[in-house]
Each structure stands twice: as C-alpha cells, then as structure tokens.
Amino acid sequence: MNKLLTTALATGVLAAATSIASAGEIAVIVKTTNSSFWQNVNKGATAAIANHGDHTMTFNGPASESAIADQVSLVENAINRGVAGIVLAPSDPEALAPVVKRAFESGIPVAIIDSGLAEGNQEYYQTFLSTDNCAAGEQAAQMMIDSAGSTGKVAVMSYVAGVGSEVGRVGCFVKYLGDNSTIEIVGPFYSQSQMATALNQTTDILASNSDLVGIFGANEPTAIGMGRAIEQAGKAGQLTAIGFDGNADLQDMVKSGTLLSTAVQGSFQMGEYGVDAVANILAGDEVTDFIDTGVVMVTKENIDTPVAQHVLY
C-alpha cells in the first residue's frame, strides 16, 4: 500500500491542502484520556512534536472507550477546524470509518494507531501503527499453556467486542489455545474497558468456577479489575493470571505474583511514531503502510530490565 503524500496528491484529493498543511496542528485523538496507557501515547506524541517545529500537537479523547459517538465528534471537530493531520486510535472499526473518509476527502492525512478500521477503508488513511495484536495474543496463550498446562478451564476477560485490537488479541489467544491444547474457554466477558465492571465480572467467575487454572485480562482497565478481584478472593498465585498493558497497578501485580505476566505494548511509540508519520507525510516523505510498535511479556524476572522498563509507564 505504501501511501505517500505524493500518491495522495495524484488522486487530487489532497492537492488543495498541500500548501496550507505544510505546517499546523496534528490532532492526536485516542480512545479515552482516562487511562495511563493513552496518557503514555500522549507522552510519545509530545516527545515527537518537539522534533517538528513547524507543527503543534493537541491530544484529546472521550471520557471512556465506549463513548464512541463522542470520539466521532472529536474527529469531526478536528476536520472542521482544518488540522494539518490526525493520529487516531478508533474505538469502533465501523463507526469511525466515515469520519476518516471525510478527513481524506478534506485533504487531511491520517495515521491510525492501536486498532484498525473496518475492511475496505484502507485507502482513506496513510499508515497503521500497532502492536501485532494477534501475535501478542498467541504469546500470552503460549505462556498460559506453559504455566497452567494444556487442560482445564481458562477465563477470558475482554473489553469492547469488535474493536480491531480486541479481535486480534482475544481472537488469536482463544484460537491458539484451541489449536494447541484441550483447555476449555470460559467467556469471553466484556468489561467495556471499565475496571469496576471487570472486577465484578471476575468476582462472579471465580465464585462460579472454582476449578479455573488460568485467566486472561486483555487490556489495562480489564486486567486491573481482574487482578483486584483475584486478590480480594484470596486466589493470588493459585491460578495463572496474565494481563495486558503496563501501568503501575499492573506492574505491582506482577511483582506481587498476582499476575504471572502482563503483555505490554509500545504505547509511547504509538504516539511518537504516529506523530512522526503524519509530519513525514506532510513533508512529502515516504511512510510504510504498517509500523509494528511491538509487545514485551513482562514478568517478575524481567520487569527491572531495560527492555521492560522501556515500555512500562
């Protein structure tokens, strides 16, 4: 795909915006501002914009990941005020597609981060930056098998059904267990990225499935709620618990043994590389269609190493 600004110009769609978009605001719009993960994206974006003196950067997002209409409005507002470019983490692959198309038609380059848009919309954005969520789900599944064994019940605590990152991360976790073990999957259960919801769901699951051998929490608020429920039930260390993302709460749970591991994405890199990509597109430079921002399985054994510390936040 290798979408270049020059390629877009050839379509005529971005031509009118070229001269005025050479400098201006790069709007970073994430799924929610109420999350350490997305605040780490902000840190990366802030670091990147310092290297692009012709541009400014704004950071915004709705109050929760489930407030999809609010995120659509934020993108619409960015388009209406004529931003130079957009870095977007879409909360819903279908709902955000029309506004990304509108940005394209308005001559505004878009870098998608973390979660993809629905199939058929690739022509409307210039690059996609993400953890390979399928590979990350498979890594978590293999660690689950290595620790819990290849039989028994494993509960899956997910977040928002159908979101691009969730489809890859949870879908590949479940498929890998199905292909490589006889583990019985309990769930998935969807927290809507609400920690309190995940805590209550996990509490109920632990009470009704005393024979669980493992549990997987697929994003930051879900994994935190899951971990707290495990601790409150007095079951820390009694089953294999694997989380996702790397804020201070999850780090503490790894150190205490509540979590065997947490899979940590390069959230800082999503913000940093996303802003860099948009700035490069505006400068007429080549940008690849996919940029892998990586994942690290953080455990008690490696949490203090440079490779882990580089992605934790």
Automatic annotation (TrEMBL):
Q: Which residues form a coiled coil?
A: none
SUPFAM superfamilies for this protein: Periplasmic binding protein-like I
Lineage, top-rank taxon, reads: Bacteria
**Compartment annotation:** Cell envelope
GO BP of this protein = transmembrane transport
Instruction: Provide the primary localization.
Output: other
Q: Which UniProt keywords apply?
A: Signal
Signal peptide annotation? 1-23
Q: A Pfam family this protein belongs to?
A: Peripla_BP_4
Limits of the Periplasmic binding protein domain: 26-285
Name the InterPro entries for this protein. Answer: Peripla_BP_I, SBP_2_dom
GO molecular function term, any single one: carbohydrate binding
Q: Name one GO cellular component term.
A: cell envelope
PANTHER family documented for this protein: D-ALLOSE-BINDING PERIPLASMIC PROTEIN-RELATED
Which family does the UniProt entry place this protein in?
Belongs to the bacterial solute-binding protein 2 family.
> In its UniProt entry, what is this protein called?
D-allose-binding periplasmic protein
Please give the organism: Granulosicoccus antarcticus IMCC3135
